[in-house]
UniProtKB/TrEMBL annotation:
Positions with a binding annotation for D-dopa: 308, 335
Pfam families: DAO (PF01266)
MF (Gene Ontology): D-amino-acid oxidase activity; FAD binding
Keyword Transmembrane in record: yes
Cofactor(s) the protein requires to work: FAD
Domain FAD dependent oxidoreductase: 6-351
Compartments, as annotated in UniProt: Peroxisome matrix
PANTHER family given in the database record: D-AMINO ACID OXIDASE (PTHR11530), D-AMINO ACID OXIDASE (AFU_ORTHOLOGUE AFUA_5G11290) (PTHR11530:SF16)
Chain residues that bind FAD: 177, 198
TM region positions: 6-23
Catalysis: reaction(s): a D-alpha-amino acid + O2 + H2O = a 2-oxocarboxylate + H2O2 + NH4(+)
Enzyme Commission number(s): 1.4.3.3
Name of the protein: D-amino-acid oxidase
Organism: Aspergillus caelatus
């Protein structure tokens, strides 16, 4: 068997998942080359900052919904059979207010807020709550069992699974996508294909420079208080680019309070006023955080800012010939990076095999 040399650029959830799935197939020598690796915290590196969870916002009948559906199967297996991955099951409550209709957040969450979303037959225990049980400001609500991911455990776990399958990891900071075909990257071997999983940096990477990829700034507060569940609501009273959600990570990872969705904003610094609003909204939405008391009873671990890699038109998973080299792209998932990760990676791996199969016949 002729072994094909593949370099994956990027070690976020997209790059690591793609490398893992490719390493499960025979005939590949895989190197993950990235500027940032799990354990790093940098504004260019979105994956460590994510919540992360499974709350689908993809529209019914779209390719994105198929990616989410395929990913649920894998995440459920990890939560059920591989607790060492940092993925656990958690009840999820979704609240909708009529006064948020037409807002940016309600538009973003429209499928998640729907009374009959496509994923109701995918996730366990989906049901609609009686309006008699809801706060007067809430018009409808749904509940289902989902997963929450401790990214500080999950990203290194993905690395460990890749290493077990023989994947090599190297630090590299490429200015152009084709620099990944350098023989130094794979110790003198010629590179047959490059996988571009550079997230937000796809907007600046030479040979790609996809200007349709923009940041959607998310600010969070991580606390020691245990909410015991995940909660999300259709909007806030503090502006279109602010949202409210709560999720407790697996294995003592703390509870994430969010947040914001500030498109086009590259600011890496924490806004203290926004942090106060985030905490006030979270305590009001989820009184179990503090036993019904105020934000002074939140035990703060840290504040954080991450930039979701949002691509206008959706995630780009496709193959392209750049110069003499095949490149398979998998980037731009925005806030759906984890919940679509396996579905996107499966397609990327299929495209890798398709591209190399075509190349082999030339």
């Amino acid at each position: 068997m002729v072994v094909k040399n593949v370099v994956v650029i990027g070690a976020g959830v997209a790059g690591l998942t793609t490398a893992l799935l490719l390493s499960e197939r025979s005939g590949y020598r895989i190197t993950v080359a990235a500027k940032h690796m799990p354990g790093d915290y940098d504004i260019e590196y979105a994956s460590p900052w994510a919540g992360a969870n499974y709350m689908p916002v993809s529209r019914r009948g779209t390719l994105a919904a198929e990616w989410d559906k395929k990913t649920w199967t894998r995440l459920l297996d990890l939560a059920t059979n591989h607790p060492e991955s940092g993925v656990h099951l958690q009840d999820c409550e979704i609240y909708s207010r009529a006064k948020d209709d037409g807002s940016a957040s309600a538009e973003w969450f429209s499928e998640l807020l729907a009374p009959n979303p496509w994923f109701k037959d995918v996730v366990p225990h989906f049901r609609t709550l009686s309006t008699d049980t809801l706060d007067h400001s809430v018009n409808s609500a749904t509940v289902f069992t989902s997963v929450c991911i401790n990214t500080a455990i999950y990203l290194p776990w993905l690395v460990s699974q890749c290493l077990k399958n023989g994947v090599v990891f190297r630090r590299a900071d490429f200015k152009h996508v084709l620099e990944a075909s350098s023989q130094e990257i794979q110790s003198g071997s010629s590179v047959d294909l490059i996988v571009n999983c550079t997230g937000l940096m796809a907007s600046r990477l030479g040979g790609v420079e996809d200007k349709s990829v923009v940041p959607a700034r998310g600010q969070i507060v991580v606390v020691r208080n245990d909410a015991g569940k995940m909660v999300n609501i259709s909007g806030t009273d503090d502006g279109d680019d602010e949202v409210c959600y709560v999720m407790t990570r697996a294995a003592g990872g703390g509870t994430i309070l969010g947040g914001s969705y500030q498109k086009g904003n590259w600011d890496s610094q924490v806004d203290p006023n926004l942090a106060i609003r985030i905490m006030k909204r979270a305590v009001k939405l989820c009184p179990s955080l503090t036993g019904g008391k105020g934000i002074e009873h939140l035990d703060i671990i840290r504040h954080g800012v991450g930039l979701r890699p949002v691509r206008e038109g959706g995630t780009r998973v496709e193959k392209e010939r750049i110069g003499d080299t095949w490149v398979v792209h998998n980037y731009g998932a925005g806030g759906a990076g984890y919940q679509s990760s396996f579905g996107c990676a499966e397609l990327a791996v299929d495209l890798i095999e398709e591209a190399l199969g075509v190349e082999a016949k030339l």
